[in-house]
Amino acid sequence: MTVTNNLAVLAATATQFSSGYRNRIINGSMGIAQRGTSFTNTNGYTVDRWTVLSAGTGPSVAQVAGPTGYRYALQITGATGNTQTQINQRIESYNCSDLSGQTVTIQVNISVSSAQTVAWYLAYPSAQDNYSSSTNITNGTFSATTTATTFTATITGLPSGVTNGLQLNFFPQNAGAFTSGTITITGVQLELGSVATPFEVRSVGTELALCQRYFWQSQNLTGTYTLFGSGVYNSSTQASIVTFFPQPMRVAPTFNSSSISTFYILPSGTLTSIGVYQVWSTCARLDLNSSSTLTLGYAYALSANNTTAAWISFSAEL
To answer: For a designed S-S bond to 279, which of 88, 215, 256, 284 qualifies (C-beta 3.0 to 4.6 A apart)?
Structure first.
């Protein structure tokens, strides 16, 4: 009987660990940071897949060294005038639709500069991947201290609404005003089952690819002249280029850019603006407008000088 029971446990464990995607949270160890590693007066996305939302004055946020077992963590510093802060991730419906009616366990490693209650909430959106409104499933609290501690909670019988997606929230100061001090968070995991298993470590390449389904930022490297895409003459003052994304994105994304004055149209041309002609889930056509006369028959590319401030980005976040 003992041998049979042990084999059953081993079989169940092997099945659970061999899935390759136990953790439904992406970037749970806060290692991917395409947007940057520090943010001020924060009310939006920070390190990949994680938003820090605030009421009143937004807190400061930084990617910092993590506690033992984690290379990185996300640290949020309270701000005078803040009335509430939350850290959350929205899970795409395709990554959690199988959890309807199931039991899940969440875990998170937290430390704070002064002992406090950290609240957590689990919710689902009213429509598939549409978080304009959501319904709370359950919530609870963790008693955090200055010692980095891994907390767990098990939720049984998830409702059918999780086929629309899931949102996991953490609130410092028990969802009250967060005006001073810090909370440091990493090792976030949400998995099927009633037992918290060791945090799933995926390769950095795999984690980056998972993040780039939702957001991609092409960052120029110091000392180089990075090419952001290539294309052809469109008119005497416009060239059209195609930029391919490293991963197919969730939906056709929105475009953004920084430091237009540092970009160039190669081999000749001064960039004045970038227009979006069309965007697909795999690539985008951008129209580069120039104050210089472009030459018929030339192939053109979008480049930036050696400044880390220059980037283009595409977002398909939830």
So the answer is: 284
Cβ-based neighbours of 97, under 8 Å, separated by 6 or more = 162, 163
User: How many CB atoms lie under 10 A from the CB of residue 47?
Assistant: 25
Rounded Cα gap, residues 95 and 132, in angstroms = 19
145 vs 307, which has greater pLDDT? Answer: 145
- Phi, psi angles (nearest 5°) of residue 76: -115, 130
Q: Confirm if 119 and 141 have CB atoms less than 8 A apart.
A: yes
Q: Which two tokens stand for residue 85?
A: 């802060």
Asked if pLDDT for residue 219 goes beyond 90, the answer is no
Cis peptide before 67 (omega within 30 of 0): no
Peptide bond into 267 cis (omega under 30): yes
Other C-beta atoms closer than 10 Å to the C-beta of 216 total 21
| Alpha helices by DSSP H, the chain | 2-17, 204-211
- 10 to 4, 15, 50, 110, 201: CA distances (angstroms): 10, 9, 34, 31, 21
Does the predicted TM-score (pTM) go above 0.70?
Answer: yes
